[in-house]
Amino acid sequence: QVQLVESGGGLVQPGGSLRLSCAASGSAFRHWWMRWVRQAPGKGLEWVSMINPTGGNTTYANSVKGLFTISRDKTKNTLYLQMSGLKSEDTDVYYCARDTMGAPRGQGTQVTISS
C-alpha cells in the first residue's frame, strides 16, 4: 500500500512562497493521477490541483490558477506544489492524495499565511 507523507508547510508572510512535497512509498504512485486538497478548521475539503501520471496534464482551482504549480518527480517518487503570491485565505492544512474518490490522504502539512 502506498503511503503519502506531506511536508514543507510553515508560516509565511502574505505574498510569500512555499513548496510543499508529498513523498510516496511504492512504485504504484508513478501511475496515479494525483491531487492536492486543503482544509481549514471546521470547513470542508477544497480541491486545489491535479496532475496526470506523466506530469503533462495539470489543472487548478480558479482561486490558485497562475499562483500555484503542481509537479512530480518520478525518480524521487514525489509530488510537489509550488505556491507563490500567498494570501491569508490560503491558510489551511494541505494534503496530497490519489485522484480517486475516497482515496486516503497523508497526514497533511500546515500552511499559515500571516504578517
Please provide a written account of the structure:
The protein has 115 residues and is mostly beta strands. It has no helices and ten strands. The chain has strands spanning 4-7, 10-12, 18-24, 34-39, 45-51, 58-60, 68-73, 78-83, 92-98, 109-113. 28% of the residues are buried.
Task: Give a short account of the largest sheet.
Answer: 6 strands, mixed
Distance between the termini: 40 Å
Kindly state the number of beta strands.
Answer: 10
> What is the succession of H and E elements?
EEEEEEEEEE
Specify Rg, calculated over alpha carbons: 13 Å
Considering DSSP H and I runs of 4 or more, what fraction of the residues is helical? Answer: under 10%
Outline type? globular
Q: Strand order across the biggest sheet? A: 2-10-9-4-5-6
Q: What's the tally of helices?
A: 0
Q: Overall pLDDT, averaged? A: 95
Structural class: mainly beta
Tell me the fraction of residues in β-strands, as a range: over 45%
Provide the low-confidence segments as ranges: none
Task: Label this structure with key terms.
single chain, 115 residues, mainly beta, 6-stranded mixed β-sheet, 4-stranded antiparallel β-sheet, globular
Give the arrangement of secondary structure elements:
Elements: E1 4-7, E2 10-12, E3 18-24, E4 34-39, E5 45-51, E6 58-60, E7 68-73, E8 78-83, E9 92-98, E10 109-113
Parallel strand pairs: 2-10
Antiparallel strand pairs: 1-3, 3-8, 4-5, 4-9, 5-6, 7-8, 9-10
Brief synopsis:
The chain has 115 residues and is mostly beta strands. Helices cover 0% and strands 47% of the residues.
